[in-house]
Amino acid sequence: LLPDLDTYRSEAPSNIALVKYWGKYGEQLPKNASISYTLKNCKTQTEVILKKRIEADDQFHYEVFLDRELKSSFKPKIDKFLKRIEVYVPFLKSFQFEIHTKNTFPHSSGIASSASGMAALAKCFVVMQASVQPELTETFQAQKASFLARLGSGSACRSTGGKLVVWGKHKDIEGSSGFYGIDYPYEVHNNFRNFRDSILLIDEGEKQVSSSLGHDLMHGHPFAEQRFEQADSNLTKLKPILAQGNFDEFFALVESEALSLHAMMMTSSPYFILMQPNTLQVINKIWEFRKSEEVPVGFTLDAGANVHILYPESSETKVRVFIEDHLLQFCQGEKVIHDQIQF
Ligand code: PMV
């Protein structure tokens, strides 16, 4: 049974990890479990248009467009993805297709679009499959979307659904798996249910180190095993923090995770410093502000120079004024994206 020649649409948000994934093995399986908040405003919207196939060969025939513009530079990553998922989505070579994608955030902003992009594309393929197999349950579809997204970009499996998502087998998280993300299954205090993430764009350029190279550098890394243990133990520690609502403990853990991720890159061979001087300026300003004003606020980082400022809704007014007055000067073009997590 083949899906109709039609347009299939889906969308997926970006996510920001609290406990970071860095290091993988086998077919995109994580060396440690990670957990992330799902964002609301930063997302990718994707359409896949299925067309009649002319070629009789054994290749994928498709084009990718970003904002209606042909983007052949995306193809190597998508080719790899399609090859990995071919066995799970067997009808892809029966068509010729176009992938049209757009992001609600600026593409070259340095915000990783691979998580939301791969998640949205994976969801489109599941929508197609469900069109011919309507008996597939919602749960099956959600799990399959996450499973496929993982094969595009590991962290993408945390972007196909849910608000606080765990990926990677962990002894203290029931139902957790390396194959797909799951909704965090335990109590989350109200303090952490209505959170804000203001993303300061420190460096808008292309990423200096691709995440695939970064993950590879964990093979033979002198601190790899300690890092995987640290991440798993941080997830264990996060459980009571999330249940009890303690901001100080939360930010101490989340900030340490961000700095540990960067420490891995500084101590790999070859080594990289992904922070910029302004990243450090911002971090120091946040620490001063938190101490002097006693406002619950903290930061996290991805594998780049941008800073994610995390805070509860109750600190929003104060933190927004602080960002405007003291941090915008460190951002490229004074750019900041205000996003949120709500559940
Ligand atoms: O999904 P990837 O392969 O692009 O890895 C991204 C990993 C980090 O964003 C740095 C951390 C994480 O857990 O999201």
UniProtKB/TrEMBL annotation:
<keyword id="KW-0444">Lipid biosynthesis</keyword>
<dbReference type="Pfam" id="PF18376">
    <property type="entry name" value="MDD_C"/>
</dbReference>
<keyword id="KW-0067">ATP-binding</keyword>
<dbReference type="InterPro" id="IPR014721">
    <property type="entry name" value="Ribsml_uS5_D2-typ_fold_subgr"/>
</dbReference>
<keyword id="KW-0547">Nucleotide-binding</keyword>
<feature type="domain" description="Diphosphomevalonate decarboxylase-like N-terminal">
    <location>
        <begin position="12"/>
        <end position="172"/>
    </location>
</feature>
<keyword id="KW-0456">Lyase</keyword>
<dbReference type="InterPro" id="IPR005935">
    <property type="entry name" value="Mev_decarb"/>
</dbReference>
<keyword id="KW-0443">Lipid metabolism</keyword>
<dbReference type="Pfam" id="PF22700">
    <property type="entry name" value="MVD-like_N"/>
</dbReference>
<protein>
    <recommendedName>
        <fullName>diphosphomevalonate decarboxylase</fullName>
        <ecNumber>4.1.1.33</ecNumber>
    </recommendedName>
</protein>
<dbReference type="InterPro" id="IPR029765">
    <property type="entry name" value="Mev_diP_decarb"/>
</dbReference>
<dbReference type="InterPro" id="IPR053859">
    <property type="entry name" value="MVD-like_N"/>
</dbReference>
<dbReference type="InterPro" id="IPR020568">
    <property type="entry name" value="Ribosomal_Su5_D2-typ_SF"/>
</dbReference>
<dbReference type="GO" id="GO:0019287">
    <property type="term" value="P:isopentenyl diphosphate biosynthetic process, mevalonate pathway"/>
</dbReference>
<feature type="domain" description="Mvd1 C-terminal">
    <location>
        <begin position="199"/>
        <end position="328"/>
    </location>
</feature>
<dbReference type="InterPro" id="IPR036554">
    <property type="entry name" value="GHMP_kinase_C_sf"/>
</dbReference>
<dbReference type="GO" id="GO:0005524">
    <property type="term" value="F:ATP binding"/>
</dbReference>
<dbReference type="GO" id="GO:0004163">
    <property type="term" value="F:diphosphomevalonate decarboxylase activity"/>
</dbReference>
<dbReference type="GO" id="GO:0005829">
    <property type="term" value="C:cytosol"/>
</dbReference>
<comment type="similarity">
    <text>Belongs to the diphosphomevalonate decarboxylase family.</text>
</comment>
<dbReference type="InterPro" id="IPR041431">
    <property type="entry name" value="Mvd1_C"/>
</dbReference>
